[in-house]
Amino acid sequence: MIMRAKQDGKVVVFELEGHLEFETTVHFQEACKNILKKQPEIRLVFNFQKLKFVGSSGINHFITTMKDLLLLSPNPKMVHVSTEFDKIFNAYRTAKYPFHIYENLEAALFAFDNPKTTRAKKHNVNKETPPPIIDA
Fold first, then answer.
1. From the CA atom positions of the chain, what is the Rg in Å?
2. For 39-70, how does the pLDDT look when each residue is reduced to its tens digit (9 = 90+)?
3. Per the structure, how many domains does the chain have?
4. Would residue 129 count as lying in a domain?
5. Within a domain: 87
6. Is residue 134 situated within a structural domain?
7. Cβ distance 121 to 101 under 8 Å?
8. How many C-beta atoms surround the C-beta of residue 67 within 10 A?
9. How many alpha carbons lie under 13 Å from residue 26 in its C-beta half-sphere?
């Protein structure tokens, strides 16, 4: 997996590209945690548009990393999440780990300042009800 981080003010957008592998998810986790240590108020957005899902290699560590980031960062957002990744995040979604997924960057940025909105949230688009949230 290749990751590129772009900061604009209080927002860092991680562009994720390629395939998930255990080694690269370790570097991804370290990079995110280093940013949050230096700037705990930073807002994180993860762009999955170029990240390919090719089976379970690295997925467990990646999910663990994303869960850790949900506890460290003020509501990180994910955008351009493929159907495959969406299914994985739905399987791991709980009240403690809500995984905020949006159609695009603009909707994710809007949601930071309007947390009660469901505007363009992937799970509410063209669906009558959002996926269930399980307390864990």
1. 14
2. 988 999 999 999 987 666 678 888 888 888 88
3. 1
4. no
5. yes
6. no
7. yes
8. 15
9. 3
